[in-house]
Amino acid sequence: MSPNRDWFTTYETVSEGVVLMGNNASCKIAGVGTIKVKMFDGVVRTLSEVRHVPELNRNLISLSTLDSKGYRCIAESGVLKISKGSLVVMKGQRKTAKLYVLQGSTVTSDVVVASSSLSDDDITKLWHMRLGHMSENGMVELSKRGLLDGQEICKLNFCEHCVFGKQKRVRFTIGIHNTKGTLEYIHSDLWGPSRVPSRDNGLEFCSDDFNRLCKSEGIVRHLTVRHSPQQNGIAERSWRRFDVEHQINTESTPQASTKIENRVASLPQYSIAKNRTRREIKPPKKYAEADLVAYALNVAEDIDANQEPFNYSEAISCEDSEKWMFAITWDIVKLPKDKKVVRCKWVFKKKEGTPGVEEPRYKAKPIAKGYSQIPGVDFTDVFSPVVKHSSIRALFGIVAMHDLELEQLDVKTAFFHGELEEDIYMQQPEGFIVSEKEDYVCLLKKSFYCLKQSPRQWSKRFDSFMTSHDFKRSSFDSYVYFKKNSDGSFVYLLLYVDDMLIAAKDKVEIRKVKAQLSEEFEMKDLGPSKKILGMEILKDRKVSKLYLSQKGYIEKVLCRFNMQSAKPVSTPLAAHFRLSSALSPQSDDEIEYMSHVPYSSAVGSLMYAMVCSRPDLSYAFSAVSRYMFGRTKNKVIGYVDADFAGDLDKRRSLTGYVFTIGGCAISWKATLQTTVTLSTIEAEYMAITEACKEAIWLKGLFSELNGDLQISTIFCDSQSAIFLTKDQMFHERTKHIDVRYHFIRDIIARGDIVVSKISTHENPADMMTKSLPITKFEHCLDLVGVHC
């Protein structure tokens, strides 16, 4: 209720209705409308169904009405907070007469009108916050000069934000260093370049060059404890660098008077958690209280346009809040007895769109904490396959050879299409808790993200749909579907979870499949395929070639490890480069130093590039990962090689093979052999066996996808090993070889696979097993169609 007619943004006159006051007097209601209020956090919210009562002396908000609307009211330490879920939407400060005064101001005709009921104490506090928590003496001086709009400044009351923001660590015991001569004890620190974070006990004072200098000159260093600049107070004080953190711990300041480095406490105790070592500076993801306001620094290192919300409260309060919201369907029921609730949480993701096709997508979804599910009760079978990368590259090879059309689709909320076979009860997600049913749970109608059985249920649903539309499922790859038309042409469909590729000779066939899919599932048509699983697709129809590139992914990896300015090299590993465990950290100091080097992360990041499109990285990856804790164009050709005793530690040999179609690599591998071999012949023999196993799988795949493609030949550069695959002339020297390696003899005897001799210089598998000189390495890349 409000007596101020000017505050209403919408207004409707009413002729009936009265309000009964506490003294039994009745006041007539003149009208009903809405009032816009700019709250403490700067957000303008609308109060609806506000009664206009001219006889009132104060504006009143009914807490019981807010409670019936699903809002929660909490009064503590003289502050009343109104919240919806975990988001505080209104705040009131307790004043005289035991009433709470709303912290905010009305908005009329898009102009903020300050409340005329502000007391002198409120005016003083307001200017105190506007001026970046200026001292009382400073504000009095500004008032005397008439710089505060004629406002008088009274005594400044207690400001909790100044106290909490300026709190310091407990003082250290004073260290006394008695010196007897000049320059015997030197305090030093670094400053600059500007906006580059530096810390005590940093590597600038611990480098090998500086260590040698100190040792040669007889200098003794006293390194301070990390994140304790107080120990080096003399040097630190010289730079006079202070963080005024209390300035962000305010209530309704619309714009800070100074640009400050924001570090926000994440717990109600107001402890400043700023001793976090980071390689990348990002805005804080958690706030101490809902009324804290943080300002983004206009510093390049601190701005992250792709920053994703951490929880529901951040998602609905950010500038893209409308894009994060979407509808979810479930049934709210009472939890049956003997049933366990599966917990959940919100996950927010900004998915990069396809350039020129779609804009970035904002995806907000509650996910179930599947690890709390009980096997046999909440789920049974969980296995669900995905299409192999080799199958994707095989399809690309067919598309390039036969000049097929290739288009891409995306299944929206794929896991929601699966049908649950069990009753799953999940807690109500944050922000969607039904009023007066807080103890109820969600009975899921369909499969849900991160449930153990969700991928399998989606797979079963999709497979049932495809087979009902005359598509056959490959027996060699579960997510490869194909259909043969009456004219002999094929339609291919590959699925990787929710990313889909469709290839056919005619776009009419593709549109037909798209229409069928759209009738059953909610699809997003991405048009001609340009990017799949991080692989960029470049098609040159004039020369019947299709190129795969992971330039964007590799550039992100380089930026992640600060190597975007690194000098490029011609080969992944130099020809003389050999690794062994003797080069691993040995001393405690070396182990401690390497614990801070992201070695495993760097190797793992490049592994995906190697698996997808970079066979030239196979040997390099195989080598470094051990120490983490004139071809025929219309055939599939294999190349195999072995490096005898290439592992200097275990003396095991290395197997490497690569298969090509149309001169482009589609499948490759570089791995250590499981047993130690006694000769080069044995190593090559075992390598041929491993290559034949892959050839058999590829042969079966291509027999379904394209009958014209055959795998007939595997090339090896060891004549002795080839003779060994054909007969047992070396029986006495090879009788100790495991019998499982001899199955290759039956394969070759039946004529399924032919193993032929090739020159070492023309064997591209050579780069899979050893480091090569630049010329040889570039030649091997050319043999498998890899262009850097």
TrEMBL record:
Transmembrane segments: none annotated. InterPro entries: DNA/RNA_pol_sf, GAG-pre-integrase_dom, Integrase_cat-core, PolX-like_BBD, RNaseH-like_sf, RNaseH_sf, RVT_2. Residues 200-297 form the Integrase catalytic domain. CDD domains: RNase_HI_RT_Ty1 (cd09272). Keywords: Aspartyl protease, Hydrolase, Protease. GO terms for biological process: DNA integration. One of its GO terms (molecular function) is aspartic-type endopeptidase activity. Pfam families: gag_pre-integrs, Pol_BBD, RVT_2. PROSITE patterns: INTEGRASE. The keyword Transit peptide does not apply. This is Integrase catalytic domain-containing protein. It comes from Gossypium anomalum.
